[in-house]
C-alpha cells in the first residue's frame, strides 16, 4: 500500500504541474514567453559549461563501460535473451530517439550553418565543411550517449536487480530503498516526468509545424496555428490508440514502418540527388567530425558572445537531456537480455551512423544548390526540406514520403513517451493502465499546443533548455550510482572464483567452452575466461 501511495503522489504532483504549464501558456502567452526567454538567457550565460561537460562525460562513461570488465554483464539474468530482433530493436529506438528531429533539421540545419557559419565566409566550401561537421556533432554520438546512460542504468536495475521501472530506482546504491521511496526519490521521478513532457511536447510542436509547412508548400493549405492544432489533435488520437495497443502490437509495428519509409526516402534522394557529392560529403564530413570532436565538444567563447552556441549546441544538448528520461526508459524497456557492450554499440554507434548518412544526403542536396537557394530554403525552417526537394526530380514524391514519415515519427515518439509517462506515474509498472496512457497523451498534446500558442518555434526550443537543466544533475549522479552497483555485481565479485573452480574440473580444452548445466558458456563466463587466459 505504501508503494501505491508514493506512485499516486508522483502522479498527482506531476499532472497538476503539467496542467498549470498548459494553462499558463494558453491564458498568458506573452508573460509565458517572457519568462521562458529570461530563463533561457540565464542558463546560457551561466551554465553553458555544465551542458558541455555533462554531454561529453555521458558519452565517455558509456564507452568506458562497454570496453571495461563490466561490458559482459547483461541487462538481466545471465541466461536472459533479447525480446525483440535486432532490426525491430533498432527501428524502435531510432524512431523514439530521433524521429521528427531528423526530418525537421536534416536539410535545415546544414543550410543554416552554410549561410551563417562561425569563423568562415558564408557560401564557401569552408562554410559547407563547417555546416556538416557541426551537424554531425549535434546529431552524432553525444545525444545517444545521454540516452544510453539512463537506459543502461534502468535496464540493469529493472532486469538484473528486480527494481521498479522508475528513474529513482537507479539511485538505490546511493540513497537506499528508503531514500528512493521518500521525498528525494519522488522529486527525481517528478523531474523525469516534467523533462519528458516538455521535451516531447517540443518535438510534437516541431512536427506539427513542419507537417503544416509541407502541406502549405505542396498543396497551399494555410500555415496557421489553427491548422497546426488540428494536426496535433488528429495525431493525438492515433498515437494514444497505438500506445493503448501496447509495444508489440502498436509501437513495434510503427517502428518497422518508420524504418522502411526512412530507407525509401533515403534511397530515392540518393538516386535523384548529387550521388557522388553525397558520398564525398559523408566520408569527408565524418572525417572532419572525428578529427575535431574533442575540440567541438568543449567549444565555448569565454570572452565573447555565446549566442550562437546557445541557440545551437546548448539547445541540442539540453534537448537530448530533456528527452533522456523518456527515451532512456523506453530503450531500457526493449533491451532486456543484451550485454552492456552490445547495448552501447547498438544504442550509440548504429543510430549515430544512421544520422550521419541522413544529414549527408539531405544536407548535401541543399548545399549542392548554392548560397542563393540555400538562403531561400533556410528562411523558413519548417519548409526548408521541401524547398530543397522541389529542385530535384521526383521532389514531390519524396516530399510526400517525408510528410508521411513526419506523421509516423510523430506518432512513434508520442506513443513511446505516453507509455513511459504512464510507467513513471504508476510506480514503475512495466504494463501501466490504459487510462493513464490516455491522460498523459492528452497532457503532452496540450503542452505542445500551449507552447505553440505562446510563441512558436523559439518558445518550443527554450522550453526544452529550461526543462533539462535540473535533470542534468540527476544524470550525473546516475553515472556514479551505476558504477557503484556494477562494482558489486555478482559477476565481478563471485563469478571469477566460481568459474576458476569449474575450469579446474574440466579435463580437455574443448570442455572450456562447455557448461554442463546450460550448454555453451554464457558471455559472462567467456569474459572471465578471456581475463584468466
Question: How would you describe the overall organization of this protein?
Answer:
The chain is an all-alpha fold and 533 residues long. The chain folds into two domains: 2-488, Amino acid/polyamine transporter I (Up-down Bundle), CATH 1.20.1740; 497-533, no CATH class. The chain has helices at residues 2-27, 29-66, 86-97, 100-105, 108-115, 125-139, 141-160, 172-181, 183-219, 225-245, 247-272, 275-297, 307-333, 340-367, 371-378, 384-389, 395-424, 434-455, 457-487, 490-504, 523-532; strands at residues 514-515, 519-520. A two-stranded antiparallel ribbon has the order 1-2. Helix 2 (29-66) packs parallel to helix 19 (457-487) and helix 10 (225-245) runs antiparallel to helix 18 (434-455). The radius of gyration is 23 Å and the shape is globular.
Which key features would you list for this structure?
533 residues; mainly alpha; Amino acid/polyamine transporter I; 2 domains; two-stranded antiparallel sheet; 21 helices; 79% helix
Briefly summarize what is shown.
With 533 residues, the chain is mainly alpha-helical. The chain has 2 domains: 2-488, Amino acid/polyamine transporter I; 497-533, no CATH class.
Strand portion, in percent?
under 5%
Cross-sheet strand order for the largest sheet: 1-2
Q: pLDDT under 50 segments (min length 5)?
A: 1-7, 506-521
**Outline:** globular
- What is the number of strand segments? 2
CATH architecture of the largest domain: Up-down Bundle
Give a short account of the largest sheet.
2 strands, antiparallel
CATH class of the largest domain: Mainly Alpha
Terminal CA distance reads 51 Å
Rg from alpha-carbon coordinates? 23 Å
The ordered H/E elements are HHHHHHHHHHHHHHHHHHHHEEH
Oligomer: single chain
How many separate domains?
2
Q: Class by helix and strand content?
A: mainly alpha
SS field, number of helical segments: 21
Amino acid at each position: 500500500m505504501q508503494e501505491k501511495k508514493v506512485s499516486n503522489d508522483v502522479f498527482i504532483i506531476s499532472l497538476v504541474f503539467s496542467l498549470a504549464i498548459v494553462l499558463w501558456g494558453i491564458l498568458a502567452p506573452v508573460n509565458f514567453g517572457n519568462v521562458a526567454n529570461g530563463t533561457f538567457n540565464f542558463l546560457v550565460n551561466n551554465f553553458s559549461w555544465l551542458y558541455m561537460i555533462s554531454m561529453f562525460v555521458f558519452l565517455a562513461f558509456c564507452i568506458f563501460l562497454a570496453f571495461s570488465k563490466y561490458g559482459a554483464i547483461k541487462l538481466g539474468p545471465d541466461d536472459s535473451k533479447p525480446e525483440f530482433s535486432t532490426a525491430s530493436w533498432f527501428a524502435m529506438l531510432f524512431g523514439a530517439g530521433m524521429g521528427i528531429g531528423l526530418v525537421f533539421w536534416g536539410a535545415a540545419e546544414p543550410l543554416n550553418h552554410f549561410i551563417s557559419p562561425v569563423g568562415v565566409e558564408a557560401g564557401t566550401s569552408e562554410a559547407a565543411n563547417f555546416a556538416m561537421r557541426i551537424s554531425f556533432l549535434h546529431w552524432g554520438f553525444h545525444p545517444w550517449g545521454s540516452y544510453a546512460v539512463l537506459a543502461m542504468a534502468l535496464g540493469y536495475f529493472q532486469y538484473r536487480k528486480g527494481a521498479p521501472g522508475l528513474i529513482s530506482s537507479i539511485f538505490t546504491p546511493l540513497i537506499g530503498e528508503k531514500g528512493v521511496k521518500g521525498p528525494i526519490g519522488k522529486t527525481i521521478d517528478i523531474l523525469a516526468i516534467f523533462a519528458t513532457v516538455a521535451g516531447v511536447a517540443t518535438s510534437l510542436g516541431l512536427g506539427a509545424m513542419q507537417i503544416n509547412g509541407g502541406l502549405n508548400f505542396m498543396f497551399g493549405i494555410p500555415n496557421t496555428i489553427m491548422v497546426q492544432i488540428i494536426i496535433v489533435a488528429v495525431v493525438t488520437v492515433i498515437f494514444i490508440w497505438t500506445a493503448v495497443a501496447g509495444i508489440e502490437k502498436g509501437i513495434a509495428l510503427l517502428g518497422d514502418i518508420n524504418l522502411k519509409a526512412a530507407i525509401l526516402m533515403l534511397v530515392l534522394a540518393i538516386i535523384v540527388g548529387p550521388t557522388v557529392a553525397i558520398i564525398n560529403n559523408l566520408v569527408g564530413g565524418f572525417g572532419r567530425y572525428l578529427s575535431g570532436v574533442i575540440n567541438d565538444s568543449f567549444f565555448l567563447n569565454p570572452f565573447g558572445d555565446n549566442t550562437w552556441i546557445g541557440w545551437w549546441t546548448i539547445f541540442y544538448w539540453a534537448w537530448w537531456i530533456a528527452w533522456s528520461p523518456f527515451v532512456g526508459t523506453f530503450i531500457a524497456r526493449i533491451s532486456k537480455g543484451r550485454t552492456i557492450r552490445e547495448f552501447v554499440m547498438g544504442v550509440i554507434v548504429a543510430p549515430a551512423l544512421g544520422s550521419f548518412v541522413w544529414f549527408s544526403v539531405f544536407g548535401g542536396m541543399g548545399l549542392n544548390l548554392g548560397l542563393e537557394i540555400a538562403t531561400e530554403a533556410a528562411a523558413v525552417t519548417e519548409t526548408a526540406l521541401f524547398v530543397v526537394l522541389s529542385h530535384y526530380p521526383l521532389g514531390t514524391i519524396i516530399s510526400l514520403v517525408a510528410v508521411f514519415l513526419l506523421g509516423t515519427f510523430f506518432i512513434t515518439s508520442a506513443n513511446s513517451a505516453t507509455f513511459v509517462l504512464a510507467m513513471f506515474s504508476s510506480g514503475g509498472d512495466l504494463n501501466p493502465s490504459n487510462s493513464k496512457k490516455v491522460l498523459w497523451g492528452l497532457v503532452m498534446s496540450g503542452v505542445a499546443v500551449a507552447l505553440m500558442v505562446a510563441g512558436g518555434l523559439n518558445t518550443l526550443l527554450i522550453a526544452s533548455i529550461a526543462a533539462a537543466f535540473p535533470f542534468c544533475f540527476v544524470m550525473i549522479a546516475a553515472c556514479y550510482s551505476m558504477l557503484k552497483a556494477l562494482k558489486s555485481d555478482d559477476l565481478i565479485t563471485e563469478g571469477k572464483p566460481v568459474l576458476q573452480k569449474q575450469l579446474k574440473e574440466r579435463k580437455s580444452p574443448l570442455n572450456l567452452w562447455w557448461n554442463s548445466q546450460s550448454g555453451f558458456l554464457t558471455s559472462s563466463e567467456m569474459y572471465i575466461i578471456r581475463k584468466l587466459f
